[in-house]
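User: For a teaching handout, I'd like to show students what a predicted protein-ligand complex looks like in token form. I'll give you the sequence and the SMILES for pyridoxal-5'-phosphate. Please answer with just the structure.
Assistant: Understood, here is the input followed by the structure.
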Amino acid sequence: MNNNKSNQDRMFSDLRSDIFQKAESYGLEYLSQVLNRNVFPTQQALAELNQFEGPMPSQSSDANEIIDSLHQFGSPATVTTSGGRYFGFVTGSAVPASLAAKNLSIFWDQVSALQVMSPISSKLETVVENWLIELFGLPPHTAAGFVSGSSMANFCGLAAARYRVLKNQGWDITEKGLFDAPKIRIVTGRHAHSTILKAISLVGLGKNNIEWVDVDDQGRIIPDMIPQLDSKSILILQAGNVNSGSFDNFKVICQTAREQGAWIHIDGAFGLWAQATQKLKHLTDGSEFAHSWAVDGHKTLNTPYDSGVILCEDKEALMSSLHMTGGYIIAGKERDGMFYTPEMSRRSRVIEFWAALKYLGKDGVDEMVQGFHDRSLQFANGLKKIKGFHVLNDVVFNQVLVRCDTDEITDLTVAKIQELRECWVGGSTWQGKKVIRISVCSWATTEADVERSLRSFEKALQLVLHDKD
Ligand SMILES: *Cc1c(COP(=O)(O)O)cnc(C)c1O
């Protein structure tokens, strides 16, 4: 563009211009359609994404045009995960108050490394840490680190575990590293989430060293198959199997494993929230005996992306394994968030986490999570009534696995459901068979949404069978 003005001058005027109102009004327009838009972008919207292609411009652009083009070509190419009929992966929506809090905090642009860099961030991290301890019934000295999601939380949990297990054997991993370190045992179930495997490789333990434990037909570790553990062992359990939604039997496993001296990490990405309900908390019984827990905000709690927490009852292990220091670091009287996370600078995502918990309260969290379960049961029961669908899992939480008569029909039906755009579900494999995976994870999902989605499943299957004839 033609600019006699310096970019700095342009930015001074942008700050006072209406670009923020414009962005907000586009955002509000989007939000007003969120319950009724296509769940997945149309072919045309996808094709028009090529508007964004091209080399890095040498000239600057106008702020208004940037916002306009995002609105015009970006917005139609979004996936409406925040509505009520997105059941893909395990993907949460966003509690409106939490989304609004995030919007406000975007203007603040806080970094939550040190208390002195953002007192509000430090305060809310402390508050939410305490609330999570209470909600999940964890030991009072448990520390929380606010990270981008459960991938990172699993990584932090295993870093703390690695620190402690080696320290038990007189080896300081932070100083000496893994070369020549005593051997660590890693024990986990055959259905461990892929991010657990990634974390194992990231912390340098190596996937080939895993002692795999067999699982039952729901994907739960068979307690009797767990080998004798010791103080060199890290046992990784799961609250919420990403396919079936099942939970390992913490009650039977955790106390024994702890007595044997093992470190227990629980990947509770979406499932740990069962603990915050009255009717489903039996699923997480015994999870309080673990040492570290990974849990998401952005899945079950419905905070905006990206938000997860590492909870660790061995604060020293967590801090020592993630610790960094520098001459200019000013330790605060209160919490300095960076000591609990790998990052130094990071967005203050606790703000919307706090807002979601404050808005819902304990009863609201219970009601929302229970609602996911109820809608999942409705989905499963509805599918059982449609000829040609077979529900494969016990619906204990929010996940439903369903298949058609053959793998081929299942694949075609998933594709057809996606094409119809009434709802969105993905495919997976379960015990060697192709399945459709349904995850109910949005506060906005109503009984009517489930009903409408069931009709779409039915129609998709009919179309597939018709095409095949
Ligand atoms: C989603 C998920 C993860 C990874 O969490 P992110 O927040 O996506 O990083 C880990 N474990 C389980 C069981 C999950 O469902």
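For the handout, you might add this sentence: The first strand starts at residue 143 and ends at 147.
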